[in-house]
Amino acid sequence: MAFEQDGIKQVDKEELKELLKSEVEKPIIIDVRELEEYEEAHIPGLPLIPMGTIPTVIDQLDKDQSYLFVCRSGGRSQNVAMYLKNQGFKDVTNYNGGMLAWDGEVKTGAEWVVKEVKELNL
Q: Which residues does the UniProt record annotate as the domain Rhodanese (predicted)?
């Protein structure tokens, strides 16, 4: 069940699963872990933009777009969401619990490592 923490909406694994299955417009879901973590196991179809590179691509992100961030435990993704909110982004959400709580399908390898934000097709 969604709740708020430090002004950031939080979703749990069941809500994330529903979002991933949804046919309606959904947020852009981004994994913000490091490449090694992502290669080990990630949610299929999610792009990787490591937390440390977010400041270098922030100008390419649409402040009116909805974003949901995923990391290992929910801490880094929460920090990314708070950072973007402080930069004027209106709709940012954190996946609370992160990959440690994820029990859905996973893939290995570098499926979608974003080098430039235009690869997200915004």
A: 23-111
